[in-house]
Write a structure and sequence with these properties.
Glycerol-3-phosphate (1)-acyltransferase; 7-stranded mixed beta sheet; 8 helices; 7 strands; 15% strand
Length: 268
């Protein structure tokens, strides 16, 4: 998860209302509940344990990059398929093959993980809160694959975590940040923290704004109430930066790009 940073600026937001999920017809309610508790939830748990355990073994054998590119991506796509989630991807023409980016995405739902890991086609390393390290199997698998755990208890500790992680970013690795710092419980785009933009400047790689739509209608935050439906993943024009780039303005500009795309999905 992104760095704590109280110095944030906001721009116009979309809505403070929690989006409505697709309604399940009464005739299909019982089959839906059966499918959710007998197929969706067990698949998530079992696939995480089995694929996560295999990833741990392969990482110890020196195959961390393969595990992240292939197995973790397969895990995400499997669960997206089982949850009947249709992912539409736009803007792939903005990506340059083999180039690293700092991905900056809005965060609505657990389903965002499936969308980004399963459908970007990029070699991803996530920035995540250190508390996830304690999750059985998943925590160790993520650590061994090279994902970045951040101590968000203070800005100093978070910066130290990010600084230490920079040395592990190489080749075509792309670092994923949710700069809002947590999932939005409404359709509102929260203020952006600046850790992602500082890392991009330090590493000398472009910021890639990414907008994700409708995942909070698939599964709202703090629930396991999965619903079928379509979501969109949009890559926007990468932003090239240098040592003279104003980080505060970069955070505002990136947030504006994502906010505009979320407010105007047809134009995204």
């Amino acid at each position: 998860m992104p760095l704590p940073d109280p110095s944030v600026q906001t721009v116009q937001i979309q809505s403070t209302e929690t989006p409505q999920q697709p309604r399940i017809p009464r005739a299909l309610l019982l089959p839906y509940l059966f499918y959710k508790w007998v197929i969706i939830i067990p698949t998530l748990l079992i696939s995480t344990i089995l694929i996560g355990s295999l990833i741990i073994v392969l990482c110890f054998l020196g195959l961390a990059n393969f595990s992240s590119r292939v197995l973790a991506r397969a895990w995400a796509r499997l669960n997206a398929f089982v949850t009947l989630m249709e992912v539409k991807v736009y803007g792939r023409e903005h990506l340059e093959d083999g180039r690293p980016y700092v991905l900056v995405a809005n965060h609505l739902s657990l389903a965002d993980i499936y969308v980004l890991y399963g459908f970007t086609g990029l070699n991803l390393r996530w920035v995540m809160k250190k508390e996830l390290r304690r999750v059985p199997v998943l925590g160790l698998a993520c650590q061994l694959m090279g994902h970045i755990y951040v101590d968000r208890s203070s800005t100093e500790k978070a910066l130290a975590s990010i600084t230490a992680a920079k040395e592990r970013i190489q080749g075509d690795m792309c670092v994923v940040f949710f700069p809002e710092g947590t999932r939005s419980r409404t359709s509102e785009l929260r203020p952006f923290k600046k850790g992602a933009f500082r890392m991009a400047q330090d590493l000398g790689i472009p910021v890639l704004p990414v907008s994700i739509s409708n995942t909070n209608r698939i599964v709202p935050s703090d629930t396991l109430d999965w619903r079928p439906g379509a979501v969109s993943l949009t890559f926007h024009q990468p932003i090239t930066i240098d040592n003279n780039t104003d980080i505060d303005q970069l955070a505002i500009d990136t947030r504006t790009i994502i906010n505009d795309a979320l407010n105007n999905p047809v134009a995204a």
